[in-house]
Amino acid sequence: MSNAGLESIHQVRAHNQFGDEQTINIVGELPLTIKIDGRELVTLMTLGTHPEKLVLGYLRNQTLFERPGEIASIKVDWERELADVTTVDGNGAPRLNLDSGSLRRTVTTGCGQGTVLSCTLDKLYDHRLPDIQIKQSAIYNVLAQVARHNKAYRMAGSVHGCGLCREGEVLMFIEDVGRHNAMDTIAGEMWLQEMSGHDKIFYTTGRLTSEIVMKAALMGIPALVSRNGATHMGFELAEELGVILIARAKSRQFTALNAKNLVFDQPPPLRKSQSEK
């Protein structure tokens, strides 16, 4: 793989509400078109910090390849805004005919950028998760740890952050302009490291939509945590695939959906008004 990661923060001149000129931080955003053996697949808008892993994770989460060994190389050229994916056999993705003109894409709520390929939906229900218990205390540990990792957001805002966590430890944290890109980048690293998701918790700053639930299941991760809310389709899909949703999570508060495998081992103290009832 190439190593074409970019700096995420740029400084520009701006004016405040008093008309005073100042230097501020803003985040980058660039298009990156993925080609497989010379045939165009999709264009992603990205921060550009980990483009090769983003591409690898996108290909994994679209179920286009069974294993990373089918891919010979990923080379990113920012001058051409292009990620060239070369396969071992040179025949493109084995489950995708890019020349047929019949490729079906579903546009999702991924900040206006998300797409799900038809072949991904066809294979989704092969990835229903086993019953794996997650402790409430582990959720609290995740919330305590992830706040230390959102560097780009603290400096400039305008990004989503995703973290792969285990027992309160943040194993990876990625920021990008879309939560789906950040999630795909983590998926790419997991794929390279042959890392299982069964004992992990995934944190995201974005909504828990059907697309995010789908990717969690494909990555083998049984629990999603977000400071944001969930959609109804995301909830229904979580029930079908066995993913616990922890929505509106902040400090000691959260709303758990599909929570049959959530162990309430550390309930917070009752408020005075509640204890008097």
Helices and strands in order, then pairings?
Blueprint: E1 9-15, E2 21-27, E3 30-36, E4 39-46, H1 51-61, E5 71-77, E6 82-87, E7 105-107, E8 115-117, H2 118-123, E9 134-135, H3 136-146, H4 151-156, E10 160-166, E11 169-176, H5 179-193, E12 201-204, H6 210-218, E13 223-226, H7 232-241, E14 244-250, E15 253-257, E16 262-263, H8 272-275
Parallel strand pairs: 3-6, 9-16, 12-13, 13-14
Antiparallel strand pairs: 1-2, 3-4, 5-6, 7-8, 10-11, 10-12, 14-15
**Are there runs of 5+ residues with pLDDT below 50, and where?**
104-113
Query: Structural class of the secondary structure composition?
Result: alpha/beta
Strand order, main sheet: write it out. 11-10-12-13-14-15
Which strand-content bin applies to the residues? 25-35%
Q: Share of helix among residues?
A: 25-40%
Number of strands: 16
Count of alpha/pi helices: 8
Question: Which term fits the overall shape?
Answer: flat
**Whole-angstrom Rg:** 20 Å
Distance between the termini: 61 Å
Average pLDDT score: 86
The protein's oligomeric status is single chain
Major sheet attributes:
6 strands, mixed
Query: How do the helices and strands follow one another from N- to C-terminus?
Result: EEEEHEEEEHEHHEEHEHEHEEEH
Could you characterize the architecture of this molecule?
The structure is a single chain. 26% of the residues lie in helices and 31% in strands. It is α/β, with parallel strands linked by helices and 277 residues long. It has a six-stranded mixed β-sheet with strand order 11-10-12-13-14-15. The longest helix is centred in the last third of the chain and has 15 residues. The termini are far apart.
